[in-house]
Amino acid sequence: MEKQKRVAAIHDISCFGRCSLTVALPIISAAGIETSVIPTAVLSTHTGGFTGFTYRDLTDDILPVANHWKSLGLSFDAIYTGFLGSFEQIDIVVKTFETLKDDGTLIAVDPVMADYGKLYSIFPETFPDGMRRVCEAADVIMPNMTEAALLLHEPYHDGPHTEEEIKHILKALADIGPKKIVLTGASYDKDTVGAASYDTETGEFGYTKRDIILPMCHGTGDVFGSVLVAALLKGATLAQAAASAVDFTVECIKRTRAANIDERFGVIFEEGLSGLNELIEKNKK
Ligand code: PXL
Questions:
Q1: Is residue 90 situated within a structural domain?
Q2: Most informative mutation of 10, 11, 13, 14 for ligand 1 (most atoms within 8 A of CB)
Q3: Which atom belonging to ligand 1 lies closest to the Cα atom of 14?
Q4: Closest approach atom of ligand 1 to CA 112
Q5: Which of 75, 94, 211, 239 has the smallest CB count inside 10 Å?
Q6: Which domain holds residue 158?
Q7: What are phi and psi of 51, to 5 degrees?
Q8: What CATH number has the domain bearing residue 108?
Q9: What is the reported pTM?
Q10: In a domain, 1, yes or no
């Protein structure tokens, strides 16, 4: 039997609302990958649309956890990080990569900070440049269109986009440092949206699109990122992994829309878990 892969997922725990660790842990585990966690903060809910949430900062615990793991000689096939709770966590997360990575570790960064043309109000204007430093240390990044614009200091506009625009953004993001780029929310016409990818090592550009389903649901970025990381560790190419992430996420959105639940409650991903490995394998062909 092939040796089981191991991921370190470094995100907050939003206790209610299905995002960050409450999504990454079940999804990556369902793909058969051991998932260790470093919680960066504990919140009663995520910050998207809820008010009055509690926030327990765990910034001071991140490096001690990493150092303890290092002392145990643990090694990781990937380190996956997303929403960072404070500016201070930026340098700490980069230090954590340095502490835990070895030659075979894939550093996957979702630069969660913005959507629909706007930086999340909880973050200072200086945050995107900090997030750019985290991306510099990554092997694969997965920004949405807004995050890409902020990382690149380029203007944002709603879709549709031209193919030249998307290729320009993918290449400019690769110039930051990561070898693999997945750009979500890339749209070439008004009815569809998808994920565009660029692997600088193979030169392959990929694109998977689906019909737009409105309104948008919360937590889809973390579902997408978790499937992407799982599929990459299962040997998918970047374009194949992005296709699995799109397929899985769209099924979650459809279920959630059909159930007509509050859009802040995250997406119904649980029903898709038992078919995740099959989906990843199907897209590898
Ligand atoms: O889904 C990203 C995310 C993660 N964690 C927290 C958030 C968000 C997005 O708003 O608020 C706490």
A1: yes
A2: 14
A3: 12
A4: 2
A5: 211
A6: 6-283
A7: -120, 160
A8: 3.40.1190.20
A9: 0.98
A10: no
